[in-house]
């Protein structure tokens, strides 16, 4: 008898052995629990047969080793040059301690948006550091926790100025010294809002009486610096607001915009240690005067207190946000750039104010050295006053100079027909300067400059980064420990399942993440010549082809750098299509259950929102929909639906909704938030969709990064393809973000995910996501009402637990969410899409053991609710109300009506590796009443504790 027993284990099978959590044996157990004979039987009971796709996804899977070998070959097709192009993107040095401990650390990149502040204190502190850094450097008191990029921040600032200015003028002035891509995005944003854009030279063409606001670039895109105080004072005299787009490194030397009277300052934190990445992701920033803080878009981290009076951080003023204000929202901002903002904040902590000033001085003097050498050789160099950027008039020799520089490994900026631009950065050294000057025919060694080219009245004389966090000992051991302390305060996917409905917190595999830090991908400027980015072109084209096959659409735009940005871009594409046909359509039908960003995006695209009712079972009320579509008639522009629905079920009537819309000449926008239930089973472009955005940070494995980055590319049917966003360097491009391919470097993650999963693996992931959700629904159905089930009694990839009945006993959805922290879990999505409920999405990546641990936690919580309901303990005395429990609770005197064991070690919680939240329940009202959005002085902490 042989001892040789063949095995079917495939160690290189990424889809089934690494990405998908349950083993085949565990799936069999789960199928028995849900009452299905097989996985395909369950899918048949869940997904309507009428919408199932006919052809399977057919590309083969790569192993992890095979993927990395493929990525190396593709990366080698990119040519990494020394970029002196500038235009808002610069070479920078990412300190290895930050690269390894932040960017490459799943404790930071797999965390979710900090809506549960008790388990997000680490990243909230890092983001508060970011806000403090931005506020200090710009000279304004309030900053947000990042926006998508500089161009979209500028567009948001324009909209913010329109709402807040006393002037009733309808125009906005754009200084011609703004970066071209910023101008393009501003123009895109202005058009549907009816804002007239006036472009010109601010020194000559600005008439404050004509505008509600103006934006200046400081330093300008061609290097110019000047005091904007007089222009800003004139604007204020006319009731208009002033926006300044600036550069954080320059502000380490230059007079800050706040000192000139600026109302709003925007820009990018990219050059604070974040690689260019062919366009992103990078943290855009915005700061403003205190009086404008409630009008500021995006997230604001504030300081509050917990239940014991200890200092605690939280997101402040959340009632401003789009998911609450819906069509009344002034912005659809949803995803920020939290991970990149954290990197930039640690760059500032790492170097401190003295280090940042030294870097800025070195950059500036290198630029002066180059300018002096060129002038000494007879060249015409402008401007006289600058920080890091100059232009050189080269006449008909422009092409020759650009080519000579490229031969020496340097990219310069083409400016007009007779100039070249040179932007110096942190990576510039004597060798780069020598190669550059050689391209101009200057062989003599440049004499290093010692005197600045900054006028005395423009040199900064105020302090910045005075808080102790920016003056800590910068030994790497201390920095490493500070990063570790902060990450230990958080709960991310590297600790536990994050079962957030609609947010798809799935595995972000290490092999998918590795290539983004390779210099062949990270060091490319987004406006580098295309022949230097052949690797990126190959990756993006193949990803687009795969997404087309997955969705049934004909073309994609990769430009939108968030899901909400994708919604906005998709609706603009629809609007442009209608205009091209000579049709005046502006009504958008949106179900009441839609994502909060949907109505906000429609408003931004210039559409009027008409809300459609839900039927009692949670489906779209087809009668109400048909009636409102008929009433809209020739004004119907679009309908926005989410499929499967936001209520977590596959609606049988989706084709009817699409048909009715098309009969009235409208276009169907299918929100891709729930694409994790469709891939390989249903193609939205084949069931009637005309356009969809895909949340690549959900379905396609880009990590959430503590609240960003995200990507939201849009797929369209062929008739809409001509109206997709164009190159942001071009006028009338319809661009929605600063770079042609958005946050291009993280597209690599989704491409790697598709390559390693293969078509069959992606399909299996969808099936298992549906299995995991139905398993949870089946196991919890006796303890918690499941709010919506499909017509066949199944949920899709998520389910909604109805906790509203417990409110009559004094137990709130907040109590349950905070108690889950004690059990070692992040709460599911709270009170959305239905107030007082929990929406649970386990994804396909969670193992049965982890799901069972989560179920055990919820069942134990249900027993505690019964204790309250049956009078054994009052709600205010129960562990539910005191949750979450901290180590401080454990070691202090215990006088509670339940044991320490029950309070601190409930079912689901690990004993040895238990997660302890650093603070108790955070007081949200206190934080809004006492708004503090920058690092407070140390004495304020003592006052809070008192």
Automatic annotation (TrEMBL):
GO CC annotation, single: cytosol
Family as reported in the entry's similarity comment: Belongs to the GcvP family.
Keyword terms: Oxidoreductase, Pyridoxal phosphate
Cofactors: pyridoxal 5'-phosphate
Keyword flag Oxidoreductase: yes
A GO BP annotation: glycine decarboxylation via glycine cleavage system
Lineage top rank: taxon: Bacteria
Function: The glycine cleavage system catalyzes the degradation of glycine. The P protein binds the alpha-amino group of glycine through its pyridoxal phosphate cofactor; CO(2) is released and the remaining methylamine moiety is then transferred to the lipoamide cofactor of the H protein.
Tagged with keyword Signal: no
Name assigned to this protein: Glycine dehydrogenase (decarboxylating)
Pfam families membership: Beta_elim_lyase, GcvP2_C, GDC-P
Subunit structure: The glycine cleavage system is composed of four proteins: P, T, L and H. Homotetramer.
PTM annotation (N6-(pyridoxal phosphate)lysine): residues: 698
